[in-house]
Amino acid sequence: MRSLSTAVAVVLAALAVVVAQSAAAASAAAPTSVRCAANSATARTSGSAAATPVKVWMAGDSTMANPSGTCPVGWGSQFDALFNDAVTVINSAAGGRSVQTWLYDPNVTSAKNSAGECVISPQTYSSRWRAMLDSTSGMKAGDYLFIQFGINDGDRNCPRHVGAARYQQLLGEMAQAAKQRGAHPILLTPVAAITCSGGTATGNRGFVNETFAAGSANGVPVIDLHRLSHILYNNLGLCPNNGDYTSGKVGAFFCNDHTHFEAAGAQQIARLVAQALRDQGIPLASYLR
Q1: Stretch (H or E) spanning 57
Q2: DSSP letter for each residue of 173-211
Q3: Distance CA 31, CA 230 (A)
């Protein structure tokens, strides 16, 4: 009897261990399953937010514009490739334009008024700006408008000349027009050319402070592309150079001048802007690849 009792006790003890192990496994599995489900739901929510179609409208000069040949290549032409398929980039940047000639082509004259600003006659917007303002096919709620000028605006002569106050005014008008349509304007300071002070690339553009002032006055984010670009040139070791823009690291980045980009340079500038979206917490960053 003692032998039988001992055997039964051993069996019961073994069963107790098995039951305890099963219960522990079930307990551990339950929260894992819940966590997995939660993670799946989060992924679906995030994916669905990033799947909402968005148009990115671009207004600027040749450093942003689509290329007509191998060089120059504006950084805006390389922007679309950085986003997922929910984003469509509409690049209306145009070479040689100040903010005023971009807005009012071909109606900005070579004459100045009493305030020293170029006369616009008639006061009719350019076709490119009218297309963005179109209530059917233009900017819609949730879209973005990138605005980058300041390179040609410092010309002393009309039609390109724009004074500092006028520059801020026109940036503000563009930003407010986007906001009225539910779109999100973003201002950019002008991208730097390559100029060297010894072994250091330095800033060389005007209208940087005016761009920040327009952003502040209109509650619009500003990406300081001027600063970011000359920091990039330093990181790439583009200074010092001998002024030969046809070879070496400088030649791979710039056209045969100190201002416009080869495709490789334009791609790097576009990536700077994309990274700034992330760094500044601009929601469009959620669409980046």
Answers
A1: strand 54-60
A2: HHHHHHHHTT-EEEEEPPPP---EETTEE----S-HHHH
A3: 51
Strands across the sheet with 222-223, in order? 87-91, 54-60, 144-148, 184-188, 222-223
- Reported as a pLDDT band with limits 50, 70 and 90, residue 41 is very low
Describe the crossing of helices 225-235 and 263-279 by its angle, rounded to 10 degrees: 120
Separation of alpha carbons 230 and 4, rounded Å: 89
At 19, is the secondary structure helix, strand, or coil? helix
Q: Which residues pair with 57 in a beta bridge?
A: 90, 145
For residue 258, give the amino acid letter. H
Measured CA to CA, the distance from residue 232 to residue 273 in angstroms comes to: 12
Looking at residue 241, its pLDDT comes to: 87
Contact (CB, 8 A) for 131 and 92: yes
Angle 208-218/164-180 helices, nearest 10 degrees? Answer: 40
Q: Which two tokens stand for residue 124?
A: 């009719």
Rounded to an integer, what distance in angstroms lies between the CA atom of residue 136 and that of residue 85? Answer: 22
Q: Which pLDDT value is given to residue 1?
A: 42
Please tell me whether the peptide bond between 67 and the residue prior to it is cis, using omega within 30 degrees of 0: no
Q: How many CB atoms lie within 10 A of CB 125?
A: 16
- Print burial letters for 68-97: b (CB count within 10 Å at least 16), e (below 16): eeebbbbbbbbbeebbeeebebbbbbbbeb
Query: DSSP characters for 206-240?
Result: S-HHHHHHHHHHHT--EE-HHHHHHHHHHHTT--S
**Burial of 58 by CB count in 10 Å (0-12 exposed, 13-18 middle, 19+ buried)?**
buried
**For residue 5, what are the β-bridge partners?**
none
Q: Residue written as tokens 């008008």? A: 173
Residues 134-144 have pLDDT tens digits of 999 999 999 99
Question: So what's the pLDDT on residue 50?
Answer: 53
